């Protein structure tokens, strides 16, 4: 058993204040550098409008609209530039409408619903063509987004149907176009 040296009250207070100061400086440094690291992701300014898309971790984010809604994407605007988009793709086509989504890709459905869904009346899963699921069957008379996995990424429109072929990059290309990111 070790015997501790008897200290005066002043000496004890001085050591306690020094230790508190050291711990405080370390904690403040962690907070400042952690926050700076979070916000120092890469940024991409889009041409033709004021939208800024920033990389935050494994996703790309941007603020949209007068209420500064946060939109999240899986891919950068640069990585989807070569995806062919044919047709008049605009947010106004979906705003306040019931939008049906036919897709077997849950991540893609979630990304479209979480970004576009806040501007629609509602988004609902549906079937396009033959389907063994217990979902409503829809065609191009309804507003319908249809995803098909494919080697080639492209987005095109036929009547009220929007077809997204490819992978998540094609879905992000569609979403970037909807929200005005060129």
Q: Sheet with the most strands?
A: 6 strands, mixed
**Domains counted in the coordinates: how many?**
1
Mean pLDDT: 86
Query: Please, how many helices?
Result: 3
Terminus-to-terminus distance: 72 Å
Strand count: 12
Shape: elongated
Structure description:
The protein has 182 residues and is α/β, with parallel strands linked by helices. The chain has one domain (43-178). 29% of the residues lie in helices and 29% in strands. The protein contains three helices and twelve strands. It has helices spanning 9-39, 106-116, 168-178; strands at residues 43-45, 52-56, 59-64, 69-73, 84-86, 98-102, 122-125, 127-128, 137-138, 144-149, 154-158, 161-166. It has a six-stranded mixed β-sheet, with helices on one face. It has a four-stranded antiparallel β-sheet with strand order 1-2-3-4. Helix 2 runs parallel beside helix 3 (168-178). It starts with 8 loop residues before the first helix and ends with a helix. The relative contact order is 0.15.
